[in-house]
Design goal:
single chain; alpha/beta; eight-stranded parallel β-barrel; three-stranded antiparallel beta sheet; 36% helix
Amino acid sequence: MPDDSTPRRRISRPNQARRASSAWRDRNRPQLDALQRYEVNRRIPVGLSTSSVFPLGLEDTFRAAQGAGYDGVEVMLSHERCTHDAEHLRDLVARYDMPILSLHAPTLFLLQFVGGLNQRRKLAGSAALAAELGVPTVVAHPPFRWQGKYAARFEQIVRDLEKRYGVEIAVENMYPWRLGVREVLVYAPDHDPTDQDFAHVTIDLSHASTAGDDSLAMVQRVGDRLAHLHLTDGNGHSMKDEHLVPGEGKQPAAEVLRHLAITEWYGSIVVEISTGKGRRLDAKMPAIERSLAFARRELGHHAFE
């Protein structure tokens, strides 16, 4: 018989989102002022995610990254078969002189069927492709609650695959799904992996905004475990994942970049923004270029020119 003394895990809670305000900055003003005066330790590379040119395809990402002057790209392993083709990816890297900084495993809700239903095998395939291409980082989302044994063993699976393939599997922070005044807790054990036993994590500023989190506090809390950053923004009071151009929302995007610039941080930064549903690359380029200019300015890249 089941043990009735074991409490059942909640599947929802009251809405925890909070509107960003000047109060947070007032409380942290001394720390933020200190970040205005910084000496850069390293020229941190800035890449462009394939998500930033959606619904355009893989080669458009390389074309946009080269045209804007990015340092590399992040490839989302998606329904596009070419995103899983090592030979095709090598060809694009050589043709555009644009390295792949990271691969994003097909762990999004809308990509659950890409690469099959066996989630461990799918994550292993992403890690194997990264190892074959010499890509150091695979970004993966936390498992959904309904993913059974995969969810229950996710931390061990990540450790095993990192050891086997010699790549970083950087688990990304997500956010609750909101239904009015309630939040549905769809990730196991939580949408925020920063308090779990992962050697490598990815922090996404838009996801932090949607969750009501402070991305700078998250970055400082995880310290050396931060392997990767998705540079974007959000207003903090939306029920959707906004992925704004950095600096055009209410997350401390500039302070996050300055903090990374003055620390001994050796990860990479990838711009992951929404540029609309249009299919004209030239219409997407202004937002892509603004994002890169913001990153280079706040990372102090002028010091290396």
